[in-house]
Write a structure and sequence with these properties.
Pfam families: Phage_AlpA. With 59 residues, the protein is α+β, with helices and mostly antiparallel strands. The chain has three helices and three strands.
């Protein structure tokens, strides 16, 4: 399992951190994992699955 940093996440989904937070709150994006008091990350497989669904929906 690989955890993505905020920087790595932004490179994959091209959304601002604020927009990612709004999507998470609405249940439309994978939830972040609290790694420490000041560090969060996202499970790469969950984010990639989320992206795959978006690609499939465009067809």
């Amino acid at each position: 399992m690989r955890i993505l940093s905020k920087r790595e996440l932004k490179e994959l989904v091209l959304y601002s951190p604020q927009h990612v937070a709004r999507l998470e709150k609405a249940g439309q994006f994978p939830k972040r994992v609290q790694l420490g008091p000041n560090r969060v990350g996202w499970i790469e497989d969950e984010v990639l699955d989320w992206l795959r669904i978006r690609v499939e929906l465009r067809k």
